Amino acid sequence: MFRLQGSKVLAVDMTQDAVKAKNGSMVAYDGEMAFKKLSGGGEGIRGMVTRRITGEQMTVMEVRGQGTCWFADRASEITLVGLQGDTLYVESSNFLAADAGLRTGTSFTGTRGASQGNGLFTTTIEGHGQAAIMSDGPAVVLRVSAQYPLTVDPGAYVAHQGNLRQSFQSGVTFRTLFGEGGGEAFQIRFEGDGLVYVQPSERNTIAGDV
């Protein structure tokens, strides 16, 4: 159902089924398609729509029909992730599309920064099927194991899956180590067994200069 055309365009072949995608990400389609903007709160896909994740809102659309639909967003690189009953946690700005059969929602994963008390809410995608995530530059997949925990700059974090524990370390980040940061900063530490997706570029985050 999901396939890449190049590294920056997602093609989804549909036979009267549906896909959930970032609003406005459709760039072309053939056949017969119906588009529906999803809004509201609660469980499932509607739980994704109105939450805030780094100070921005995200809207999702449902595409249903017969034919092929192509998706892209700002020439971002796209990575396909297969889920086998597990859960993928992905930043709002890095979500592109998911099989309609996958359950989607929101998870509170911790607090970014002790003094500001900023919360980190992450999109969750779970079940059996495929999801497409985006990154600024080709995503790198890093393995976390019991012997090798991983520390990530939050501006480079894209997504993670597996049996991972996530914690935040405030007061320092990679830039502040070299005197380039300012204000309160933090890192994200992952422990356990799983995969972390990072991008070779940093976004602005809400808990200090990172």
Automatic annotation (TrEMBL):
PANTHER family: ALTERED INHERITANCE OF MITOCHONDRIA PROTEIN 24, MITOCHONDRIAL (PTHR38074:SF1)
Name the UniProt record assigns to this protein: AIM24 family protein
InterPro entries the UniProt entry points to: AIM24, AIM24_sf, Trp_RNA-bd_attenuator-like_dom
Pfam (any one): AIM24
Organism: Streptomyces rubrogriseus
SUPFAM superfamilies named among the record's database cross-references: TRAP-like
Gene3D superfamilies, per database record: Mitochondrial biogenesis AIM24
